[in-house]
What we know:
7-stranded antiparallel sheet; transmembrane
Amino acid sequence: MNSPQRLHPITVLFAISANLKNMVIPLLVYAGINLVNRGGGQALIWIAVGTGLVVLFIITQAVLSWYRQVYFVENDEFRMERGAWLKKKIYIPLKRIQSVDNVETIWHRLFGVVQVRIETASGKEEPEAVLEAVTRSAADQLKYALMHQKAVGGAESKTPAHLNGETDREKPLLHTQRLSHSSLLLAGLTSGRLGVVLALLGPILSFADDVFRIDEGMIRGAYLWATGILSIGWLLFTVLLFSWLISIISTFVQDYRFTISRDHSHLIIQKGLLERRRTLIPLRRIQAVHLVENLARQPLGYATLHIESAGYGTEEDQKLVAFPLLKRSQAAIFLERFLPEFTEAAQAPIQPLPRRVWKRMVLYFLPLPLLLAAALTWFFPHGGSWGWLLLPLVFLYHHWRYHDAGWMLKERVVGFRSRRLNRVTTWLPGRAMQSRTLRYTPLSRRVNLASFRTVLASGNRYDSHWLEKKDVIRLIHQMDPERKRDEKLNEDSPFQELQ
Length: 499
């Protein structure tokens, strides 16, 4: 791996097809202009010559790009040189590499190669370096060199035989769990992506309007045709059923053959039908674990487990699905096998919020719907009174949120449970916390209530609900990285000043 390596030659074909796809529309415009201005055989000659020159340029550029692109590991850095006409050199220190992913599209699988994506903590949407096509063995050797060589501080980087001899495939896996086909079907049925699909229908209709110039008459005609066949109720049911089927299919394509494995230092996640993705996540980079129970899965006792990894893609991408469908009662067993640091926290009971918080979470939200209902009744006397239904709905919703909220503390891990629609339980280890803050307002201070705020190394911020002030002080003390195990909060502790 210390000597420069080239990508697989199939990279040339990938580059040519990608560039030709981008040139289709310009070539069609060029052909149309020639046919209009010149006409007949002369136009065809110009089109053939112009298209031939463009294709020749694309092929030349693809071959040169492949020939000049090399990668290697040297002096504790991943280095890549590329560029057909202008050469660009990329140096990435091994200690800054956060993840190395393998991606296999249908075309990659057809030719037995993989795409390798190398990401750092830069927070960019695109990976820092992408190797479009390399063999699987070369990808495994590179991944081993990048992730394990870094773990030993580069001490083994000067041993090419070691790097070339052991691949990631040969590393022993401690645990492996695969999502069964029946669980995948249940995950699709309860994925909760129906709202996402419905939200996507708007942009799709807008795009169709731009392309086909849909006017009001066409919409009215389609509506009358549809309602002539189906009643409005059945039409709505058909739209929802169609959207639900799309959400099932998207879950099936995305999570097909979902497999999670663990070795001594990494989680390995593989999934995907059309695009097969293999993600390697260092255990020490995991900042938080989230157990998400949506409205469809919670009554059935199922949940989705997410992990948050520092420096993995953008802020949103840092939350990865660790397992799409899991029995809530088996979450602790799953964590014991794959993330043992969080096992005790998952077994600990959730403590309810103080009774005094109910007033702040429920009654404080009622004045706004009260004023809205009064305004509707005043301005719309023949129907505005229905607005008073908002009051019980808002009351029940916030009471529901209060009832499901809670917190827990177990040694070095703190957990919070909250709900908007989905019920989310989040466990945060003290080692990932960059700051711990006690927050209160003048009103909450009078009744000894406060909230706990922490910022993780991933940059994400978490706030608890209102808790007893003494409990928040205990959270801050327990999550102190310098605190010794079983050390109690005594009178000499600086945290006593917060009392």
